[in-house]
Amino acid sequence: MTIKPLKGIHHVSALTANAKENYQFYTKVLGLRLVKKTVNQDDTSVYHLFYADERGNPGTDLTFFEIPRAGRTYPGTNSISATSLRVKNDVALHYWKNRFEKLEVDHDEIQEKMGRATLSFRDHEGQRLILVSDETNIGVEGGKPWDKSTVPSENGIVGLGPVVLTVSRPERTINVLTNLMGFREKQGYTRNNDQKEVRVFETGEGGSGAEVHIIEDAENNRERPGRGSVHHVAFRVEDEEELKKWVELLKNNHLPNSGFVERYYFRSLYFREPNGILFELATDGPGFEGDEDFEHLGENLALPPYFEHQREEIEAKLKPLDTKEF
Fold first, then answer.
1. Is the CB of residue 166 less than 8 Å from the CB of residue 219?
2. SS3 54
3. Cβ burial, residue 2 (10 Å; 0-12/13-18/19+)
4. Could you tell me if 115 and 121 are in contact, meaning their C-beta atoms sit under 8 angstroms apart?
5. Using CA atoms in the order 12, 297, 134, 123, what is the torsion angle rounded to 10 degrees?
6. What's the CATH code of the domain at 85?
7. Residue 326 has pLDDT above 60, yes or no
8. Which molecular function terms from Gene Ontology are attached (predicted)?
9. Tens digits of residue pLDDT in 112-154
10. Phi-psi region of 159 (alpha: psi -120 to 50; beta: other; left: phi over 0)
11. How far is C-alpha 252 from the chain's CA centre?
C-alpha cells in the first residue's frame, strides 16, 4: 500500500468561552474571514467557527469551538503550546507590531527563529499565537487574504505556520511523526526566552506551512485546557481515497483511532499520539462552498445535510451571533 506524504497543516482547532468576542477579535483585529459558522458536530449545542483566507483554503483555517463555561487554561506539557500564522514578509510584521500597540493586544518584540522574523502575541483569552514572516520561506504556498478584510492585503494573514508541541517524552511523539506519518527532521533552533532546544520536523513540500516544532518539558504538569487552549491540529490528506489508506495504516499499526469520519466540509481521521495530543488527518476538499456561495460565506448558520432536520432544535440552543456585518 503506497500512501502519499501528508501535504502540511490543514487546520488548528482551539477553544473559546465567548463566540461573539472571538468573532470580533479574529475578524476585526486579525482581519481573517469567517468562512463558516456552524456547530461542533460532536456537540451541536455549541458553535464551531472557521476563520481563514478568502475561501478557507486548506492550510489557512484557524477554528474555534465555543465552550461558554470554559475555565482558564493552566499551561503545561503534553499540549499544543503555540499556533503560528503566516504573513508575506518582514515589513508586514512591523505593521502588525504597530497595530497591536494601537489596539492594545498583548505582544512580544519581533524575534528571529530559523532565519524567519516572528512576532508572538496573545488574544483576549490568552490564546498563544505567533506571526511568522514568509520572506525567506520556501515550501507549501500560503492562501490569499480576503479583499474585504480590515487589514490591507499586503499585510494580511495568508495561512497557518508551524505548530509548537510541548511534550514530556519527545522521542515518543517523534517516533510517530517520522516512522508513521512520514515527517523528516530539519535544522532546529534554540528558543530565545528560555534557551530550550526546539526540534523541527516537516512533511510534503516543507516550509512554514508544513512544520511541527517540538519542545521537551518533563518537569511541568500536563496542561489543563480551557479558554485560550488548542484542542487539536489537523494535517492535510489529498483526498478520501488517501484518507482510507491512512485508516488502514493506523489499524495495521494498532494505534487507536476514530476510523473514517464524515465532516461534510472535509473527511477526517482522529488519533492521539503517545503523549496524548490529538491529531487529525483531513482531506483538502470538498471545501466550504457546497452550502454557501463565495460572497456570503459565514453569514448564516450552516449545517451539514445530516443535521438539517434538527435545525430548529439546534438554533434554539445557540446564542444569536450576527456575522453579516464584517
1. no
2. coil
3. exposed
4. no
5. -50
6. 3.10.180.10
7. no
8. dioxygenase activity
9. 999 999 999 999 999 999 999 999 999 999 999 999 999 999 9
10. left
11. 28
Quick one: pLDDT at residue 193?
79
* pLDDT computed for residue 277 by the predictor: 98
Residue 323 lies in a domain: no
Domain housing 101: 9-317
Domain count, the chain: 1
C-alpha cell at 134: 514568509
Using the 8-state DSSP alphabet, how is residue 5 labeled?
P
Among the listed ranges 98-102, 192-196, 250-254, which one has the minimum average pLDDT value? Answer: 192-196
* 90 vs 164: CA distance, rounded Å: 21
Task: Tell me which residue has cell 495530543.
Answer: 277
* Nearest residue to 144 (alpha-carbon basis) of 236, 290, 33: 33
Which residues have CB under 8 Å from 100's CB, separation 6+?
A: 106, 107, 119, 121
| Per-residue pLDDT at 324 | 86
pTM check: above 0.90: yes
Model confidence at 108: pLDDT above 80: yes
Cell numbers at 94, concatenated:
512591523
What is the C-alpha separation between 113 and 118, in angstroms, rounded? Answer: 7
pLDDT recorded at residue 251: 96
Q: Residue 161 in contact with residue 211, Cβ under 8 Å?
A: yes
